[in-house]
Amino acid sequence: MAFRYPNGKKYVNNTQNTPKKRSQNISYSNRGMSLEKDLNETNEYYRSRGVAVIHKKPTPLQIVDVDYPRRSAAVVTEAYFKKPSTTDYNGVYRGYHIDFEAKETKNKQSFPLKNFHEHQIEHMQRVLQQGGIAFAILRFTAVDETYFLSAEHLCSFYMHRQNERKSIPKSEIEEKGHLIPVGLHPRINYLKILDQIISNE
Amino acid sequence: MAFRYPNGKKYVNNTQNTPKKRSQNISYSNRGMSLEKDLNETNEYYRSRGVAVIHKKPTPLQIVDVDYPRRSAAVVTEAYFKKPSTTDYNGVYRGYHIDFEAKETKNKQSFPLKNFHEHQIEHMQRVLQQGGIAFAILRFTAVDETYFLSAEHLCSFYMHRQNERKSIPKSEIEEKGHLIPVGLHPRINYLKILDQIISNE
Q: What domains can you pick out in chain B, each with its CATH number?
């Protein structure tokens, strides 16, 4: 189940419960879900083996109204999606603070920068200033390629290219980033890439 | 505005928008809000001065239904509160991963351990294992005293005392923890306490 955010971004409900189908205009496309699902499984793998403690943050909602049925759980009956002010994923690995955003595109030749909010870029820069590790995980769904791109490179692209082209050419992501091999367990072993980067520093 | 979680915990809507008052059984008590508000202001102070990047995570909700009015923003019309599986606050400070939970009690002599979920305690232990810094900020509202208690002590209390007394005596928090002086800017300078702990190690 996928539906649109006010900003055009898809919200994807990837829980086990089957949602009731009352709403209109719902797209049942599964697109946009697979990267998040892969990362959730990867993070669960890391946690269960004591490799790292990294979680996806809950979707930020502005809660306006809540009902209390007599014999059942409280129900939020009115809430609105808010723009996230931070990245979606963070946690700790080998003493390092880890902070990242994950995005996919159907584009084949470039990654649109509109996928990132300005607040998220600012957040990544603040994290770097505090000595944390920040990056993006970018997937080109058409070719099923997933890249690790450091926040240093992402922020540099964002700052210098936003007015010109509003996207990062795939060739530059291939050059500055790192292709993450897709596996079974874990699906997207991004910490292996991080290990290589840390050991090369 | 404050209302009850299914688990008895209060949900506090601390946003600028005034919520519509349609729900029943709402308690308008402001209790339970002040510590969160103080911490949000403190974290905003830290961020604005480049001291640290620490955020409160959004309230975890299970979204079940969303409506799309034609000319306005998407509205979540059915959602349920979920138990948090992590602590509420995390971020990065001087290269350290910071992870903490904040709770208040009206009790005068002890802090009830039922305020902490088992998942949160396990999460703190995992964070410690990864070399992160984890702690609790505990407020006794009756005397307006706020303490910094390391996760090492909190987890030890939780593991050994849960079946016996299900609370931590205030005297032990005074002994093992650190009283945080309440100021104006920032309101709760918990990183100052952390600095002292780090420099004493």
A: 31-58+85-200 (3.40.1350.10)
